[in-house]
Design a protein that fits this description.
Helices cover 0% and strands 54% of the residues. By secondary structure, it is mainly β. A hairpin with a 5-residue loop joins strand 5 (46-51) and strand 6.
Length: 115
Amino acid sequence: QVQLVESGGGLVQPGGSLTLSCAASGIIFRFYDMGWYRQAPGKQRELVAAITRGGSTNYVDAVKGRFTISRDSAKNTVYLRMNSLKPEDTAVYYCNAKLVSSDYWGQGTQVTVSS
């Protein structure tokens, strides 16, 4: 049974930082490309950051220079370090694992940026 369990969300003030974690089980983690997506109320889910199994990364323009995605294959975990958070970063953040036709999602974790 595949599970992706996100943690680390919460309420933070503008300019603050959070680190999201996604612990994977039931997959051979090192084979999968991993990503973080987010969905704000009334908006479509969008890719925020991705990291390939080889370690290559890409980011949506809105978070470049502020967010960093990383992975630890020893812990089967992918991280999203978020700095200089803005109110427009408020959303539910989802972890994704992808390999060819296999596509798995976590349950999501809420990030709220507000004063």
